[in-house]
Design brief:
alpha+beta; Aspartate Aminotransferase, domain 2; Aspartate Aminotransferase, domain 1; 2 domains; 8 strands; PyrdxlP-dep_Trfase; PyrdxlP-dep_Trfase_small
């Protein structure tokens, strides 16, 4: 179950090969990656299914809800049954399902949002390029050749003083966020019985990434002046730390 984190596709060619050799179903978590792609093949079209989120914080939304993409007709029918109380015809329940259909209002919002997704995506990509060109003293996102990163988040890595940089940006009126600050293996369900870190889980790179990541504004309505203000604030803050 690869995650296209922040809008950058996971290494789907390699993961597809692994899944095929092992006889596994590949299910894509594309919640943050609407319109992302590798070459001319979009995310959501590589595995058995692709899961998209339409929550309001995503690159497009329908107030709530989501979508599953698949080219498997049998799976598509099962999903339709599951979302509609297990039935295609009223009172002819075939399986145990739930009522998880989008409302008509949510669908209408989603259709309107979808009509603007292309424009918004190009603007996010342009904003990200401007940030990458101007930022200094931090590690900017790396996009493999042929990959289309749609920048749900523009996330830098700050090897030292990440929290201090965030505080300095806040003082300058620049919003930022640290997503997933606690690695999964440090959460309560994965700790030892006494609450200490489980010695079976040694993931130093995961912990380093969680301690260094910081997301900066990249939303499509940012102006050039606002982008320059973000760049200047980051560079000045890094120089002062």
């Amino acid at each position: 179950m690869p995650v296209h984190l922040y809008g950058l596709p996971a290494n789907l060619p390699a993961l597809t090969e692994i899944a095929e050799k092992a006889g596994l179903a590949l299910v894509e978590d594309a919640a943050q990656a609407h319109a992302a792609a590798i070459g001319d093949r979009p995310v959501g079209a590589w595995g058995k299914g692709g899961c998209f989120s339409f929550y309001p914080t995503k690159n497009m939304h329908s107030l709530e809800g989501g979508m599953v993409s698949t080219d498997d007709a049998e799976l598509a029918r099962t999903l339709r049954l599951l979302r509609n109380q297990g039935m295609e015809q009223r009172y002819a329940n075939e399986i145990v399902g739930a009522n998880v259909r989008l409302t008509d209002v949510a669908a209408a919002v989603g259709r309107n949002q979808l009509s603007r997704l292309g424009e918004w995506t190009e603007r996010r990509i342009a904003n990200a390029a401007r940030l990458t060109a101007g930022l200094k003293g931090v590690i900017t996102p790396v996009v493999p050749e042929g990959y289309r990163h749609v920048y749900h988040q523009y996330t830098i890595r700050v090897p030292e003083h990440r929290d201090a940089l965030q505080a300095a940006l806040t003082e300058r009126g620049i919003g930022s966020a640290t997503y997933y600050p606690t690695p999964i293996h440090r959460l309560r369900p994965f700790l030892a019985a006494d609450g200490s870190p489980d010695p079976r889980w040694e993931l130093p790179e995961t912990e380093r990434a969680a301690a260094e990541a910081l997301s900066l504004p990249v939303f499509p309505t940012l102006t050039d002046a606002e982008l320059d203000r973000i760049i200047d604030a980051v560079n000045a803050s890094i120089e002062a730390l």
